[in-house]
Design a protein that fits this description.
By secondary structure, the protein is mainly alpha-helical. It is built from 7 helices and 2 strands; from the N terminus they run ααααββααα. The protein has one domain.
Length: about 150
């Protein structure tokens, strides 16, 4: 693919992920119908966007490899996503909704999986993992350094 193709592909993926994150966690109050209908339409759009998001995650070579290595399904991705939200990672940082982006990019996803494999998947230990992921997206932890923290 070459460097240019790799960079363009990465940018294209990021743009698609960002668009879907905005549907899932952005303001969809301007859909048209009011009241209950608007809420139903909004929820359907969010569910559809989340499924498209998982499609993009599964299409990423690194993410797909990690899913295979750890025998993960979409249900597992959903569970991890909700766990990250409950731990406070459901935040927007520099254009990323971190609870979703942590599962869409190799390095934070690898860190999350290795941390869980090493028994850091619950309680205070998981809170530390979640905090590291927030720091990674704030750029307090540089690319390549997150994996060293496992």
């Amino acid at each position: 693919m070459g460097l240019f193709g790799s960079i363009f592909g990465s940018f294209s993926k990021s743009k698609k992920l960002s668009k879907l994150q905005n549907i899932i966690w952005g303001d969809l109050g301007t859909l048209g119908p009011s009241g209950f209908e608007a809420m139903q339409e909004s929820q359907k759009a969010k569910e559809k966007a989340l499924q498209e998001y998982w499609d993009l995650c599964e299409a990423d070579e690194g993410v797909a490899q990690l899913m295979k290595e750890h025998s993960l399904s979409r249900k597992n991705l959903n569970d991890l996503y909700m766990k990250l939200i409950k731990t406070g990672v459901g935040q927007w940082i520099k254009g990323h909704f971190v609870a979703l982006s942590a599962l869409a990019y190799y390095e934070p996803f690898y860190y999350l999986m290795e941390s869980q494999r090493k028994g850091r998947g619950d309680g205070e230990e998981f809170e530390k993992v979640a905090y590291d992921i927030l720091c990674y997206f704030r750029k307090d932890i540089k690319n390549g350094e997150l994996s060293k923290r496992v």
